[in-house]
C-alpha cells in the first residue's frame, strides 16, 4: 500500500523540476504491480529441449566443438566411473531403491506423459476458449449494432418523402371538409327558399278554392225553385222518351 | 557413506545444524508462483485442477461454517503429498515419518474441531457420543467407548500417517538390502527381489498419495460433525 502511495506521489512529482526525474528512477524498485510490465511477453510454446529426459541440449551443443558427438557421453561415463572407483558414491541398498524408483518414474512419464500433457493443454485451451467466446460474442453483437444503425440512417433519408405524403393527406382532408360544408350550406338555403315557394303556392290555391266555392254558392243560390221544378220535369220527360226508345230498340 | 537401515529416519543435521526447517520449506519452491499471467504453464494448470477437484470433494458436503478451513486443508494436503512423494526418492528425508511432526499436525487441528463443536453447538457435539437407536442397556458402556474413540482420534491420525510411511520406507530399504546382498550370491533370486521392489515402489507411490488424502479427509469429516 505504501508503494502505491509512493507511486502516486512520484507520478505527480514527475512534472516539477529537477527532483522529478530522480524520484521516478529511485521509485522504480518499488514497482511491484504488473501494471508497469504490460503487455507481458508470451510464454514459449515448448519447454527447453532435453536429451534423455534430464540433460539439456545446450550441454551437448557446448561440448560439440571440442569433443564432438560422443563428448558428453564420455564425460558422463567418466564421472560415474570416477565416483564409483573412488568410492565417493558407494553402492548400497539405496542404489537398488533408487533404481526401482527411477524405473517407476520413467515408466510413468513414458506411459502417461503425453496424455497428461494434452489434458493440461486442454484445461488451458478451454479457459482461453471461454474468454475468446465472450470476446467473439461481444464483437458480433457490436457489428450487428453497427448494421442496425446504418439501416436507421438510411431510413432517415426517406423522411422528406414521408412528410410530403402526409402534407398531401392533410390538404385533401381539409378540401373534403370544405366541400362538405359548402354542400350543407347550399342545401339549407334551398330548403328555406322551397319553404317560401310552398307557402306562396298554398296561398294561391286557397284563394282559388275560395273563389270557386263562392262562385258555386252564388250560382246555386241564383237557381230559383221554379226553374228547378221545370228542369226536373224536363229531365223526367227526357228519361221517359229515352226509355221508350230503348224498349223499341230492344223489341226489334 | 555407509548407511544403516534407520539413517533415513534421522532428523538431518549438517555439522550440528538441524536442517529440518530446510527439509520442510524446500518443497515449496517446486510449485511455481501463479505469476502475472492468467493462463500459465501445464504444471500450474494441473496443480490448479487438482486443488479445484480436492476443494470440491472435501467442501461440498460441508456446511458454510466449515468453508473457512478451505485454505488450511488444501494447503495441508498439497504439503503432505509433496513431502510423501519426495521422500520416495533415494537419500531423501521424509519429515512425515516423524511422529512428532504428524502429531503436531493432527492434535491442534482435531482439538480445534472439537472446541468449535463444543462452543457453537454443545448439545449436538455431546450427542455424537451416542449413536441413534441404541438399546437402553448399552448406553453407559457406549458413552465410555465413544468418548475413548473421540480422544483416540488425533493419536490415530498421527500414528496412521507415521506408521504407513515409516513401514513403507523401511520395507523398501529392507528389500533393497536383500536384493543388494543376494546380487553377489544368487543373482536370479536378486532379480526376483528387484521385481518385488519395483512393485513395492508402485505401492508406496499410491500409499503416499492416499495417506495424505485420508489424513485431510478425516479431519474434514471431524469438522463436518462439529461445525
Automatic annotation (TrEMBL), chain A:
Keyword Zinc-finger carried by entry: no
Signal peptide (UniProt feature, chain positions): none
A GO MF term: proton-transporting ATP synthase activity, rotational mechanism
Compartments it resides in: Mitochondrion; Mitochondrion inner membrane
Gene3D superfamilies documented for this protein: 1.20.5.2210
Record's keyword terms, sorted: Acetylation, CF(0), Hydrogen ion transport, Ion transport, Membrane, Mitochondrion, Mitochondrion inner membrane, Transit peptide, Transport
Coiled coil regions, renumbered to chain: none
Pfam families associated with the record: Mt_ATP-synt_B
Isomerase as UniProt keyword: no
Domain of life: Eukaryota
GO annotations of cellular component type: mitochondrial inner membrane; proton-transporting ATP synthase complex
Subunit description: Component of the ATP synthase complex composed at least of ATP5F1A/subunit alpha, ATP5F1B/subunit beta, ATP5MC1/subunit c (homooctomer), MT-ATP6/subunit a, MT-ATP8/subunit 8, ATP5ME/subunit e, ATP5MF/subunit f, ATP5MG/subunit g, ATP5MK/subunit k, ATP5MJ/subunit j, ATP5F1C/subunit gamma, ATP5F1D/subunit delta, ATP5F1E/subunit epsilon, ATP5PF/subunit F6, ATP5PB/subunit b, ATP5PD/subunit d, ATP5PO/subunit OSCP.
Family indicated by similarity: Belongs to the eukaryotic ATPase B chain family.
Protein task: Subunit b, of the mitochondrial membrane ATP synthase complex (F(1)F(0) ATP synthase or Complex V) that produces ATP from ADP in the presence of a proton gradient across the membrane which is generated by electron transport complexes of the respiratory chain. ATP synthase complex consist of a soluble F(1) head domain - the catalytic core - and a membrane F(1) domain - the membrane proton channel. These two domains are linked by a central stalk rotating inside the F(1) region and a stationary peripheral stalk.
Name of protein: ATP synthase subunit b
TrEMBL record, chain B:
Annotated TM spans: 12-31, 69-89, 101-118, 138-159, 171-199, 205-223
Bilayer topology: Multi-pass membrane protein
SUPFAM superfamilies referenced in this protein's UniProt entry, alphabetically: F1F0 ATP synthase subunit A (SSF81336)
A molecular function GO annotation: proton-transporting ATP synthase activity, rotational mechanism
Keyword set, alphabetical order: ATP synthesis, CF(0), Hydrogen ion transport, Ion transport, Membrane, Mitochondrion, Mitochondrion inner membrane, Transmembrane, Transmembrane helix, Transport
Highest taxon, organism lineage: Eukaryota
Pfam hit, one: ATP-synt_A
Cellular component terms per the entry's GO annotation: mitochondrial inner membrane; proton-transporting ATP synthase complex
InterPro entries xrefs: ATP_synth_F0_asu, ATP_synth_F0_asu_AS, ATP_synth_F0_asu_bact/mt, F0_ATP_A_sf
Catalyzed reaction equations: H(+)(in) = H(+)(out)
Locations listed in the record: Mitochondrion inner membrane
Family per record: Belongs to the ATPase A chain family.
Subunit composition and interactions: Component of the ATP synthase complex composed at least of ATP5F1A/subunit alpha, ATP5F1B/subunit beta, ATP5MC1/subunit c (homooctomer), MT-ATP6/subunit a, MT-ATP8/subunit 8, ATP5ME/subunit e, ATP5MF/subunit f, ATP5MG/subunit g, ATP5MK/subunit k, ATP5MJ/subunit j, ATP5F1C/subunit gamma, ATP5F1D/subunit delta, ATP5F1E/subunit epsilon, ATP5PF/subunit F6, ATP5PB/subunit b, ATP5PD/subunit d, ATP5PO/subunit OSCP.
Protein name: ATP synthase subunit a
Source species taxonomy: Eukaryota, Metazoa, Chordata, Craniata, Vertebrata
Gene that encodes it: atp6
